[in-house]
Protein backbone atom coordinates (compact mmCIF):
# COMPACT_ATOMS: atom_id res chain seq x y z
CA UNK A 1 0.00 0.00 0.00
CA UNK A 2 1.22 3.48 -0.87
CA UNK A 3 2.14 5.71 2.11
CA UNK A 4 -0.05 8.58 3.37
CA UNK A 5 -1.55 10.52 1.64
CA UNK A 6 -1.02 8.76 -1.70
CA UNK A 7 -2.90 5.60 -0.73
CA UNK A 8 -6.22 7.37 -0.45
CA UNK A 9 -5.81 10.41 -2.66
CA UNK A 10 -5.33 7.81 -5.41
CA UNK A 11 -8.77 6.43 -4.48
CA UNK A 12 -10.54 9.78 -4.06
CA UNK A 13 -8.94 12.10 -6.64
CA UNK A 14 -10.96 12.84 -9.77
CA UNK A 15 -10.03 14.48 -13.06
CA UNK A 16 -11.72 17.88 -13.59
CA UNK A 17 -10.99 21.03 -15.60
CA UNK A 18 -10.10 23.15 -12.57
CA UNK A 19 -6.55 24.45 -12.35
CA UNK A 20 -4.10 24.49 -9.41
CA UNK A 21 -1.14 26.89 -9.14
CA UNK A 22 1.43 25.56 -6.65
CA UNK A 23 4.09 28.15 -5.80
CA UNK A 24 7.17 27.28 -3.76
CA UNK A 25 9.32 30.15 -2.46
CA UNK A 26 12.40 28.11 -1.59
CA UNK A 27 13.61 28.62 1.96
CA UNK A 28 11.22 31.53 2.49
CA UNK A 29 10.44 30.85 6.16
CA UNK A 30 12.42 32.86 8.67
CA UNK A 31 12.66 33.87 12.35
CA UNK A 32 11.83 37.45 13.41
CA UNK A 33 14.76 39.81 13.94
CA UNK A 34 13.62 42.91 15.86
CA UNK A 35 10.07 41.71 15.25
CA UNK A 36 10.39 41.44 11.45
CA UNK A 37 11.09 38.65 8.99
CA UNK A 38 11.91 39.23 5.30
CA UNK A 39 8.29 38.27 4.58
CA UNK A 40 6.76 40.69 7.09
CA UNK A 41 9.17 43.51 6.16
CA UNK A 42 8.66 43.08 2.41
CA UNK A 43 6.32 45.42 0.53
CA UNK A 44 3.94 42.90 -1.06
CA UNK A 45 0.69 44.53 -2.21
CA UNK A 46 -0.27 41.69 -4.56
CA UNK A 47 0.49 38.95 -2.06
CA UNK A 48 -1.38 40.91 0.64
CA UNK A 49 -4.47 41.17 -1.57
CA UNK A 50 -4.41 37.43 -2.31
CA UNK A 51 -3.74 36.47 1.30
CA UNK A 52 -6.60 38.64 2.58
CA UNK A 53 -9.05 36.39 0.70
CA UNK A 54 -7.21 33.15 1.44
CA UNK A 55 -6.88 30.61 4.24
CA UNK A 56 -3.56 30.65 6.04
CA UNK A 57 -1.72 28.23 8.30
CA UNK A 58 1.68 26.97 9.37
CA UNK A 59 3.08 23.82 7.78
CA UNK A 60 5.88 21.64 9.15
CA UNK A 61 7.96 20.27 6.23
CA UNK A 62 8.70 16.75 7.45
CA UNK A 63 8.38 16.40 11.23
CA UNK A 64 8.95 18.68 14.24
CA UNK A 65 12.64 19.50 14.55
CA UNK A 66 13.59 18.09 11.13
CA UNK A 67 15.43 20.52 8.83
CA UNK A 68 14.99 19.02 5.32
CA UNK A 69 17.05 19.45 2.19
CA UNK A 70 15.18 20.91 -0.76
CA UNK A 71 14.66 17.41 -2.17
CA UNK A 72 12.81 15.96 0.84
CA UNK A 73 11.03 19.30 1.35
CA UNK A 74 9.61 19.23 -2.18
CA UNK A 75 8.76 15.52 -2.07
CA UNK A 76 6.73 16.22 1.10
CA UNK A 77 4.99 19.18 -0.59
CA UNK A 78 4.08 16.91 -3.51
CA UNK A 79 2.65 14.32 -1.08
CA UNK A 80 5.53 11.81 -1.21
CA UNK A 81 6.67 11.07 2.34
CA UNK A 82 10.44 11.70 2.24
CA UNK A 83 10.93 9.36 5.20
CA UNK A 84 9.50 6.63 2.96
CA UNK A 85 10.83 7.83 -0.39
CA UNK A 86 14.44 8.73 0.39
CA UNK A 87 15.88 9.93 -2.92
CA UNK A 88 19.48 11.09 -3.18
CA UNK A 89 20.02 14.64 -4.37
CA UNK A 90 22.20 13.31 -7.18
CA UNK A 91 19.19 11.67 -8.84
CA UNK A 92 17.15 14.89 -8.56
CA UNK A 93 19.95 16.96 -10.05
CA UNK A 94 20.56 14.45 -12.86
CA UNK A 95 16.86 14.39 -13.82
CA UNK A 96 16.81 18.18 -13.51
CA UNK A 97 19.41 18.64 -16.21
CA UNK A 98 17.44 16.31 -18.46
CA UNK A 99 19.30 13.01 -17.95
CA UNK A 100 17.45 9.71 -17.73
CA UNK A 101 19.20 7.30 -15.39
CA UNK A 102 19.39 3.59 -16.24
CA UNK A 103 19.61 0.79 -13.64
CA UNK A 104 23.40 0.49 -14.06
CA UNK A 105 23.96 4.16 -13.26
CA UNK A 106 24.56 6.00 -9.98
CA UNK A 107 24.21 9.80 -9.72
CA UNK A 108 25.61 12.25 -7.18
CA UNK A 109 25.37 15.99 -6.58
CA UNK A 110 28.70 17.79 -6.48
CA UNK A 111 29.87 21.19 -5.30
CA UNK A 112 33.00 22.95 -6.45
CA UNK A 113 34.38 24.04 -3.09
CA UNK A 114 37.42 25.66 -1.51
CA UNK A 115 39.86 23.69 0.61
CA UNK A 116 42.01 25.69 3.05
CA UNK A 117 45.76 24.89 3.31
CA UNK A 118 45.06 22.96 6.53
CA UNK A 119 42.76 20.60 4.63
CA UNK A 120 39.51 21.90 6.06
CA UNK A 121 36.68 23.27 3.95
CA UNK A 122 36.93 27.08 3.71
CA UNK A 123 33.91 27.58 1.40
CA UNK A 124 31.42 24.87 0.43
CA UNK A 125 30.47 26.79 -2.71
CA UNK A 126 33.86 28.25 -3.74
CA UNK A 127 32.32 31.70 -3.47
CA UNK A 128 29.37 30.69 -5.68
CA UNK A 129 31.42 30.50 -8.88
CA UNK A 130 29.59 31.49 -12.10
CA UNK A 131 28.10 28.79 -14.31
CA UNK A 132 30.52 29.55 -17.13
CA UNK A 133 33.53 28.77 -14.91
CA UNK A 134 31.76 25.60 -13.76
CA UNK A 135 31.52 24.52 -17.42
CA UNK A 136 35.26 25.08 -17.94
CA UNK A 137 36.14 23.09 -14.81
CA UNK A 138 33.80 20.26 -15.80
CA UNK A 139 35.48 20.04 -19.24
CA UNK A 140 38.88 19.92 -17.53
CA UNK A 141 37.84 17.15 -15.13
CA UNK A 142 35.95 15.17 -17.77
CA UNK A 143 39.04 15.15 -19.98
CA UNK A 144 41.29 14.11 -17.10
CA UNK A 145 38.95 11.48 -15.59
CA UNK A 146 36.94 9.67 -18.30
CA UNK A 147 36.77 6.47 -16.27
CA UNK A 148 37.90 4.84 -13.03
CA UNK A 149 38.52 1.07 -12.99
CA UNK A 150 35.74 -0.41 -15.18
CA UNK A 151 33.36 2.48 -14.45
CA UNK A 152 32.57 5.29 -16.88
CA UNK A 153 32.66 8.78 -15.32
CA UNK A 154 30.40 11.51 -16.70
CA UNK A 155 30.25 15.05 -15.36
CA UNK A 156 27.64 17.72 -16.02
CA UNK A 157 27.27 21.35 -14.99
CA UNK A 158 24.08 21.98 -12.99
CA UNK A 159 24.23 25.71 -12.11
CA UNK A 160 26.79 28.03 -10.53
CA UNK A 161 28.98 25.87 -8.21
CA UNK A 162 26.76 22.76 -8.59
CA UNK A 163 27.50 19.75 -10.80
CA UNK A 164 26.31 16.21 -11.36
CA UNK A 165 28.50 13.08 -11.32
CA UNK A 166 27.11 9.99 -13.08
CA UNK A 167 28.89 6.65 -12.78
CA UNK A 168 28.00 3.93 -15.30
CA UNK A 169 29.04 0.32 -14.90
CA UNK A 170 28.21 -3.09 -13.53
CA UNK A 171 27.91 -3.85 -9.87
CA UNK A 172 27.32 -0.30 -8.61
CA UNK A 173 25.14 0.51 -5.59
CA UNK A 174 23.79 3.84 -4.37
CA UNK A 175 24.22 3.61 -0.61
CA UNK A 176 27.27 5.81 -0.05
CA UNK A 177 27.55 8.55 2.57
CA UNK A 178 28.23 12.18 1.62
CA UNK A 179 31.81 13.46 1.49
CA UNK A 180 30.28 16.92 2.06
CA UNK A 181 29.94 17.49 5.82
CA UNK A 182 27.51 20.32 5.11
CA UNK A 183 29.57 22.94 6.95
CA UNK A 184 32.94 24.65 6.79
CA UNK A 185 35.88 24.35 9.18
CA UNK A 186 36.16 20.62 8.96
CA UNK A 187 37.75 18.33 6.36
CA UNK A 188 35.73 16.58 3.67
CA UNK A 189 34.67 13.08 4.70
CA UNK A 190 35.98 9.98 2.95
CA UNK A 191 33.50 8.32 0.58
CA UNK A 192 32.16 5.36 2.58
CA UNK A 193 29.49 2.79 1.82
CA UNK A 194 26.69 2.67 4.39
CA UNK A 195 26.30 -1.11 3.90
CA UNK A 196 28.54 -4.16 3.44
CA UNK A 197 26.97 -4.72 0.01
CA UNK A 198 29.86 -5.05 -2.47
CA UNK A 199 27.99 -2.83 -4.93
CA UNK A 200 27.90 0.03 -2.45
CA UNK A 201 31.51 -0.64 -1.50
CA UNK A 202 32.51 -0.41 -5.17
CA UNK A 203 30.70 2.90 -5.67
CA UNK A 204 32.36 4.34 -2.57
CA UNK A 205 35.78 3.26 -3.82
CA UNK A 206 35.18 4.87 -7.22
CA UNK A 207 33.88 8.13 -5.70
CA UNK A 208 36.87 8.37 -3.34
CA UNK A 209 39.24 7.99 -6.28
CA UNK A 210 37.24 10.59 -8.23
CA UNK A 211 37.48 13.13 -5.39
CA UNK A 212 41.23 12.60 -5.04
CA UNK A 213 41.89 12.81 -8.79
CA UNK A 214 39.61 15.84 -9.21
CA UNK A 215 41.25 17.68 -6.31
CA UNK A 216 44.68 17.03 -7.79
CA UNK A 217 43.63 18.29 -11.24
CA UNK A 218 42.00 21.40 -9.78
CA UNK A 219 45.01 22.24 -7.60
CA UNK A 220 47.23 22.09 -10.70
CA UNK A 221 44.89 24.06 -13.00
CA UNK A 222 45.92 27.62 -13.93
CA UNK A 223 42.31 28.82 -14.26
CA UNK A 224 41.65 27.83 -10.64
CA UNK A 225 44.56 29.94 -9.39
CA UNK A 226 42.91 33.07 -10.81
CA UNK A 227 40.06 32.79 -8.29
CA UNK A 228 39.80 33.54 -4.57
CA UNK A 229 38.15 31.63 -3.03
CA UNK A 230 39.52 29.01 -5.41
CA UNK A 231 37.37 26.08 -6.63
CA UNK A 232 40.15 23.66 -5.71
CA UNK A 233 38.19 20.63 -4.60
CA UNK A 234 34.85 18.85 -4.98
CA UNK A 235 32.28 17.80 -2.38
CA UNK A 236 29.93 14.91 -3.13
CA UNK A 237 26.48 14.23 -1.69
CA UNK A 238 23.16 12.58 -2.41
CA UNK A 239 24.55 9.47 -4.08
CA UNK A 240 21.72 7.27 -5.34
CA UNK A 241 20.16 5.17 -8.09
CA UNK A 242 16.85 6.21 -9.65
CA UNK A 243 13.73 4.97 -7.78
CA UNK A 244 10.27 4.51 -9.32
CA UNK A 245 7.64 6.74 -7.66
CA UNK A 246 3.90 6.61 -8.51
CA UNK A 247 3.31 9.63 -10.78
CA UNK A 248 0.92 12.58 -10.28
CA UNK A 249 -1.17 11.31 -13.16
CA UNK A 250 -1.86 8.08 -11.26
CA UNK A 251 -2.29 9.30 -7.68
CA UNK A 252 -3.85 12.75 -8.26
CA UNK A 253 -5.37 12.39 -11.77
CA UNK A 254 -3.57 15.62 -12.71
CA UNK A 255 -1.68 16.77 -15.80
CA UNK A 256 1.23 18.54 -14.09
CA UNK A 257 3.85 20.95 -15.41
CA UNK A 258 6.90 22.34 -13.59
CA UNK A 259 8.57 25.72 -14.10
CA UNK A 260 11.86 26.13 -12.22
CA UNK A 261 15.13 27.81 -13.20
CA UNK A 262 17.36 25.51 -11.13
CA UNK A 263 17.76 21.93 -12.38
CA UNK A 264 17.31 20.12 -9.08
CA UNK A 265 13.70 21.35 -8.81
CA UNK A 266 12.93 20.28 -12.38
CA UNK A 267 14.45 16.97 -11.34
CA UNK A 268 12.23 16.38 -8.32
CA UNK A 269 9.26 17.43 -10.47
CA UNK A 270 10.19 14.96 -13.22
CA UNK A 271 10.62 12.21 -10.61
CA UNK A 272 6.92 12.50 -9.72
CA UNK A 273 5.75 12.67 -13.32
CA UNK A 274 5.64 16.40 -14.00
CA UNK A 275 6.47 17.68 -17.47
CA UNK A 276 9.21 20.31 -17.65
CA UNK A 277 8.68 22.40 -20.79
CA UNK A 278 12.03 23.06 -22.50
CA UNK A 279 13.76 26.43 -22.23
CA UNK A 280 17.18 28.03 -22.59
CA UNK A 281 18.29 28.06 -18.94
CA UNK A 282 21.75 29.49 -19.63
CA UNK A 283 22.92 32.12 -17.17
CA UNK A 284 22.17 32.16 -13.44
CA UNK A 285 19.71 33.68 -10.97
CA UNK A 286 15.90 33.44 -11.22
CA UNK A 287 15.61 33.94 -15.02
CA UNK A 288 12.09 35.12 -14.28
CA UNK A 289 11.32 36.20 -17.84
CA UNK A 290 12.11 32.68 -19.07
CA UNK A 291 9.79 31.22 -16.44
CA UNK A 292 6.93 33.58 -17.27
CA UNK A 293 7.36 32.92 -21.00
CA UNK A 294 7.02 29.18 -20.33
CA UNK A 295 3.84 29.83 -18.34
CA UNK A 296 2.36 31.90 -21.15
CA UNK A 297 3.34 29.49 -23.94
CA UNK A 298 2.81 26.10 -22.25
CA UNK A 299 0.50 26.76 -19.29
CA UNK A 300 -2.68 25.67 -21.05
CA UNK A 301 -1.34 22.12 -21.42
CA UNK A 302 -1.59 21.56 -17.66
CA UNK A 303 -4.15 21.60 -14.83
CA UNK A 304 -1.42 21.74 -12.17
CA UNK A 305 1.60 24.04 -12.33
CA UNK A 306 4.51 23.92 -9.86
CA UNK A 307 6.26 27.31 -9.99
CA UNK A 308 9.57 27.56 -8.12
CA UNK A 309 11.47 30.61 -6.81
CA UNK A 310 15.04 29.83 -5.74
CA UNK A 311 16.90 32.90 -4.52
CA UNK A 312 14.90 33.34 -1.30
CA UNK A 313 16.80 30.24 -0.16
CA UNK A 314 20.23 31.41 -1.39
CA UNK A 315 20.03 34.73 0.44
CA UNK A 316 18.82 32.97 3.57
CA UNK A 317 21.93 30.80 3.38
CA UNK A 318 24.04 33.93 2.89
CA UNK A 319 22.42 35.55 5.93
CA UNK A 320 21.32 38.51 3.80
CA UNK A 321 17.99 39.84 5.21
CA UNK A 322 17.61 42.73 2.76
CA UNK A 323 18.30 40.64 -0.34
CA UNK A 324 15.96 37.88 0.86
CA UNK A 325 13.29 40.55 1.39
CA UNK A 326 13.94 41.87 -2.13
CA UNK A 327 13.44 38.39 -3.65
CA UNK A 328 10.04 38.30 -1.98
CA UNK A 329 9.18 41.75 -3.39
CA UNK A 330 10.35 40.64 -6.84
CA UNK A 331 8.04 37.64 -6.58
CA UNK A 332 5.17 39.89 -5.50
CA UNK A 333 5.69 41.96 -8.65
CA UNK A 334 5.15 38.91 -10.92
CA UNK A 335 2.25 37.43 -8.97
CA UNK A 336 -0.29 39.08 -11.34
CA UNK A 337 1.47 37.34 -14.25
CA UNK A 338 1.03 34.00 -12.49
CA UNK A 339 -2.63 34.72 -11.75
CA UNK A 340 -3.13 35.50 -15.45
CA UNK A 341 -2.93 31.72 -15.96
CA UNK A 342 -6.36 31.77 -14.26
CA UNK A 343 -5.85 29.15 -11.57
CA UNK A 344 -8.95 28.11 -9.62
CA UNK A 345 -6.85 27.34 -6.55
CA UNK A 346 -3.52 28.87 -5.53
CA UNK A 347 -1.13 27.53 -2.91
CA UNK A 348 1.94 29.49 -1.84
CA UNK A 349 4.47 28.25 0.70
CA UNK A 350 8.13 27.19 1.04
CA UNK A 351 9.80 23.78 1.01
CA UNK A 352 11.67 24.61 4.22
CA UNK A 353 12.75 27.67 6.20
CA UNK A 354 16.22 29.15 5.69
CA UNK A 355 16.45 31.79 8.41
CA UNK A 356 19.06 34.48 7.78
CA UNK A 357 20.16 34.07 11.40
CA UNK A 358 20.77 30.35 10.87
CA UNK A 359 22.26 30.60 7.32
CA UNK A 360 21.03 27.08 6.62
CA UNK A 361 17.83 25.09 6.15
CA UNK A 362 15.88 24.85 9.40
CA UNK A 363 12.98 23.02 11.05
CA UNK A 364 10.75 26.09 11.44
CA UNK A 365 7.22 25.66 10.04
CA UNK A 366 6.34 27.59 6.87
CA UNK A 367 3.46 29.98 6.33
CA UNK A 368 1.08 28.43 3.81
CA UNK A 369 -1.65 30.18 1.84
CA UNK A 370 -4.51 28.47 -0.01
CA UNK A 371 -6.73 30.70 -2.17
CA UNK A 372 -9.85 29.47 -3.94
CA UNK A 373 -13.64 29.81 -4.26
CA UNK A 374 -14.38 27.64 -1.22
CA UNK A 375 -11.80 28.80 1.32
CA UNK A 376 -12.54 30.53 4.60
CA UNK A 377 -11.09 34.02 4.14
CA UNK A 378 -8.78 34.96 7.01
CA UNK A 379 -8.09 38.62 6.20
CA UNK A 380 -4.41 38.26 7.14
CA UNK A 381 -0.99 38.81 5.54
CA UNK A 382 1.21 35.96 4.28
CA UNK A 383 3.83 36.08 7.03
CA UNK A 384 5.09 33.62 9.67
CA UNK A 385 3.37 35.60 12.40
CA UNK A 386 0.02 36.25 10.65
CA UNK A 387 -0.28 32.68 9.37
CA UNK A 388 -0.28 31.44 12.96
CA UNK A 389 -3.94 31.18 13.92
CA UNK A 390 -5.15 31.11 10.30
CA UNK A 391 -8.03 28.79 9.45
CA UNK A 392 -5.73 26.09 8.02
CA UNK A 393 -4.22 25.71 11.50
CA UNK A 394 -0.98 23.76 11.83
CA UNK A 395 -0.30 21.17 9.15
CA UNK A 396 2.43 19.09 7.62
CA UNK A 397 3.53 19.41 4.01
CA UNK A 398 2.04 15.98 3.30
CA UNK A 399 -1.42 17.43 4.06
CA UNK A 400 -1.24 20.12 1.39
CA UNK A 401 -1.88 18.21 -1.85
CA UNK A 402 -5.18 16.71 -0.54
CA UNK A 403 -6.22 20.20 0.58
CA UNK A 404 -5.57 21.85 -2.78
CA UNK A 405 -7.32 18.97 -4.57
CA UNK A 406 -10.35 19.35 -2.27
CA UNK A 407 -10.48 23.12 -2.79
CA UNK A 408 -10.37 22.52 -6.55
CA UNK A 409 -13.28 20.06 -6.15
CA UNK A 410 -11.02 17.25 -7.36
CA UNK A 411 -11.79 14.84 -4.48
CA UNK A 412 -14.90 12.64 -4.32
CA UNK A 413 -16.61 11.84 -1.05
CA UNK A 414 -14.95 9.24 1.15
CA UNK A 415 -17.40 6.45 1.86
CA UNK A 416 -21.20 6.41 1.58
O1 LIG B 1 21.20 25.57 -3.55
C1 LIG B 1 21.28 24.35 -3.41
O2 LIG B 1 21.72 23.54 -4.25
C2 LIG B 1 20.85 23.78 -2.08
O3 LIG B 1 19.60 24.28 -1.73
C3 LIG B 1 21.89 24.17 -1.05
O4 LIG B 1 23.03 23.49 -1.42
P1 LIG B 1 24.42 24.04 -0.87
O5 LIG B 1 24.32 24.13 0.64
O6 LIG B 1 25.44 23.01 -1.33
O7 LIG B 1 24.61 25.38 -1.50
UniProtKB/TrEMBL annotation:
GO terms for biological process: glycolytic process. One of its GO terms (molecular function) is metal ion binding. Residues 175-201 are annotated as: Disordered. Its EC number is 5.4.2.12. Gene3D superfamilies: Alkaline Phosphatase, subunit A, Metalloenzyme domain. Residues 19-405 form the Metalloenzyme domain. It is an enzyme of class 5 (isomerase). This is Phosphoglycerate mutase. It comes from Ardenticatena maritima.
